[in-house]
Amino acid sequence: MRRLIRTLVVLGGTLGLLATSGCGGVYYTVSVNAAQTRLEQARQMGAESQAPYEYYFAREHLRQAQVEASEASYSDAAGYAETAELYAQKAIDVIQSAKKSGDAK
Q: In the chain, what are the domains?
């Protein structure tokens, strides 16, 4: 009886690890798609010249996310993708703030 319980616990733990390890690629995909969309939006708004620090910081983090994903380091890749999305949004915010300041004058 104890042997059966021990086997079930080990089997359950193994299945749990397998189930959670497969989610990294999915989470990375969602993160990188969001970052790519936000970065493209920033580029179309002129971030390359109007918010270059934020834009290029985001772009390089997105590139590093893709490198990490190619090495199956999905957790690291998702982190880089999240940073890329954050800085792409900052670039958008800089541009919008500059437009508002220009409109107020």
A: 24-104 (1.20.1270)
